[in-house]
Design a protein that fits this description.
- The complex is a heterodimer of chains A (114) and B (127).
- Chain A has 114 residues and is an all-alpha fold.
- Chain A is built from 4 helices and no strands.
- Helix content of chain B is 78%, strand content 0%.
- Chain B is built from 4 helices and no strands.
- Classes of the chains: A mainly alpha (114), B mainly alpha (127).
- The interface between A and B is medium-sized, with 35 and 30 residues.
Chain lengths: 114, 127
């Protein structure tokens, strides 16, 4: 069974480009945790409110959601053979990702204007 | 769709003996799935931890529950493995270490490096 728009080179490339972006982000996060862990409420909010951190987290969030979408879609296509089942599961997962994205970006924006 | 009749459809995962490269691959999928499942909850924690001091303390309290400590450890391992094995897959895309012996060594290298990074981060975060 083929699902138009769900296979091909484009998602493969997006998966890899987003992977590099997310990889750099997590290496940055790991270094922050290991070197200067912002472990109280004020430091944490201030760290996230720093413009370049805020933008980097926001972009990484979008990259993570896009990357996760392609990954979970591959898993669903592998294990859910039924078309209706695929549609239901992918709709559920897709809307969860979009919802998480909007929620996360709102949280990142609110800490900026606080 | 032409499919040969004797092709196994449901593979018995317990009976399959995977080489180390296979383990790195399947863990990539498992860790990716776990990280996917963690996204909404992580965003929730991000939100409340940024809202106020009370919210931050609430997030710390939630994460301090023994079950959540275990979940956090598994997710930390998932991130480290997904990152390290992901770098390996990107290098494979560039035709690096494709020979069997090299590939095996490379897979072991990924597991060793990820164990070291995982332990460093675990000590820093949990102790």
């Amino acid at each position: 069974m083929s699902s138009p728009g769900l296979q091909g080179l484009r998602p493969w490339i997006i998966q890899r480009v987003s992977a590099v972006f997310i990889g750099v982000f997590f290496i940055y996060i790991f270094l922050v945790v290991l070197i200067d862990n912002p472990l109280n409420a004020n430091d944490w909010a201030a760290w996230v409110a720093t413009p370049y951190n805020n933008i980097f987290i926001g972009l990484s969030l979008i990259a993570i959601l896009w990357h996760a979408w392609i990954g979970i879609r591959d898993i669903v296509l592998d294990y859910v053979p039924n078309v209706v089942g695929r549609l239901l599961v992918l709709t559920l997962f897709g809307s969860t990702l979009i919802g998480s994205g909007l929620w996360g970006l709102k949280a990142l924006f609110m800490v900026l204007i606080k | 769709m032409a499919v040969s009749d004797n092709r196994p459809f449901f593979l018995n995962l317990v009976k399959i003996k995977l080489p180390v490269t296979g383990f790195v691959s399947i863990f990539q999928r498992i860790s990716g799935l776990l990280l996917f499942l963690a996204i909404p909850f992580s965003v929730y924690l991000l939100d409340i931890s940024l809202q106020s001091r009370t919210g931050f303390n609430r997030a710390v309290e939630i994460l301090s529950a023994p079950l959540l400590q275990l979940v956090s450890l598994i997710l930390l391992w998932s991130i480290v493995h997904h990152l390290l094995a992901g770098i390996r897959f990107l290098l494979i895309d560039f035709d690096i270490a494709l020979e069997k012996q090299q590939a095996t060594r490379f897979a072991w290298l990924v597991l060793v490096i990820e164990a070291v990074i995982f332990m460093l981060l675990t000590v820093e975060i949990f102790l």
